[in-house]
Amino acid sequence: MKFIFHSPQYLYLLLLLAPMVGLSIYSFYIRRRKLHRYASNPEMRTTLMPERVGRKRLMRDLMLILSFAALVIVLARPQMPGNKQEGEDRRGIEAMICIDVSNSMLCPDLAPSRLNFAKRSVQRLLERMQSDKVGLIVFAGKAYIQLPITTDLKTAQEFLANISPSMLSAQGTAIGEAISLGIQSFSSREDIGKTIIVMTDGEDHEGDAIESATAAAKQGIRVQVVGIGTAEGGPIPVADGQYLKDEDGQVVTTHFNSDMCRSIAEAGQGSFVTSTNQSDLVEALYQELDKLPKANTGRLDHSGYLELFEVWAWLALVLLVAECFIAERRNRILMKYNLFSHE
Description:
There is one protein chain. The chain is α/β, with parallel strands linked by helices. It folds into two domains: about 5-85 and about 305-335, no CATH class; about 90-300, 3-Layer(aba) Sandwich (Rossmann fold), CATH 3.40.50.410. The chain contains eleven helices and 13 strands. A six-stranded mixed β-sheet has the order 6-5-4-7-8-11, sandwiched between helices. Strands 1-2-13 form a three-stranded antiparallel β-sheet. Strands 3-12 form a two-stranded antiparallel sheet. Helix 4 links the parallel strand 4 (about 95-100) and strand 5. Helix 4 (about 115-125) packs antiparallel against helix 5, helix 4 (about 115-125) crosses helix 9 (about 280-290) and helix 6 runs parallel beside helix 7 (about 210-220). The radius of gyration is 30 Å and the shape is flat.
């Protein structure tokens, strides 16, 4: 019987079990040491703290630790494959999404930053591209494939979440190189629509973007450009809450280059889309993608998964309730001398 977890990243919380167990043992040891300090006679120690009291304390700690483990498993959502249902053929397009990660994309003119605005836009776009094949490219002064083209959009979303300017040290905006890399990333199929989506503010481009977009169009690949930023622009944050400054000590203002973005889209026979409203931006872009010819991108099997987290949720609840009913009655002598209070 095979089990999987919908959100396995939460399982890392189970690493906290070891220090929790250690803390429980340490607490028990401290209590015993205090007891030995005030009562050297074994019979007196038994009177002050019977064995059952120690066992109850350990039992309560164990229940709390086990309930924590059960709640972690609930968060991870254990599942078991159910009965397979009849699948269906998926029809979609091939798209390589190129995301600008240059420092200018840190500008907060689109809160919280241009890059975060772009990433959230791509996230929402992927939610509507369930039948398409998608790949990711990141670029600044150089361009790199972050994720080869795939139908696994869940993996694409995970890779998308990890995108940041720290991925590339070379600064600049190598849009042309990103487009060229995108051209090489598609399959050799001729029956499916292919597009390169460039998410950028268009600033500090390397100069070969128009040529690369033209080359893509000649191969039947549309280049869509999504402009990220505002006409007013803004400063570029650096470390310690400061902003990037020029040689004269003046704060640098980065501006969204809409003319360059529009020119690249025209050369690539695609569309230029920009908006400060994320919903409008994604909708406009998706409408352009929907015009491209679609072909079979694979078969989608509707294999139902049985959710098992309810079992662990009930287990956690039972353990917590049981822990509450294990009363730890304090010995009156201990209370009188306050032996186990914190020092």
